[in-house]
Design goal:
This protein is an alpha/beta fold. It is built from five helices and five strands.
């Protein structure tokens, strides 16, 4: 049973860190269909994500946000998603969030590095559009049962 308290999935803020506009739309659409009503922000690079999380050089559009969930693509431009994970880990006292890594990779070494760097869940992106959509839908339904701080 899904509760409606403010700490449930449907009320949290989400940051999608993804450079593929199609993937962003697909993730947002399927999280919304799973019941997410909170704010969804998007960062297209690691630099933009770091600015949004730390308020470094943030302008009015990228003002510091406090997401309880980050959907992170490892293959984002600049230094990549691992840099965002490292920032979160070194600032755990200020950045309290759950991180779900989405990657085209299924390399066990990369997966292990992500978990060691602080990700909570690692999901390999399916190459097929319909499987990708189903993965996000399933994740959204799963997140309905998670309690967030």
């Amino acid at each position: 049973m899904v509760t409606s308290d403010k700490n449930s999935f449907n009320q949290i803020n989400v940051l999608i860190v993804e450079d593929d506009a199609g993937h962003v739309k697909l993730i947002e659409k399927n999280l919304r269909s799973a019941g997410l009503a909170g704010k969804i922000s998007v960062a297209n690079t690691d630099i933009e994500a770091i600015a949004m999380l730390t308020d470094e050089s943030a302008d009015a559009l990228t003002k510091k946000i406090e997401p309880l969930l980050i959907m992170l693509d490892l293959g984002i431009p600049e230094k990549g998603g691992l840099e965002v994970l490292r920032l979160i880990m070194t600032n755990r006292n200020k950045i309290k969030t759950m991180v779900i890594v989405f990657s085209a990779s299924s390399d066990p070494v990369e997966i292990k590095n992500c978990y060691l760097s602080g990700c909570n869940i690692f999901i390999t992106k399916p190459g097929d559009y319909n499987k990708f959509a189903e993965t996000i839908r399933s994740l959204g339904h799963f997140l309905n049962y998670i309690k967030f701080p």
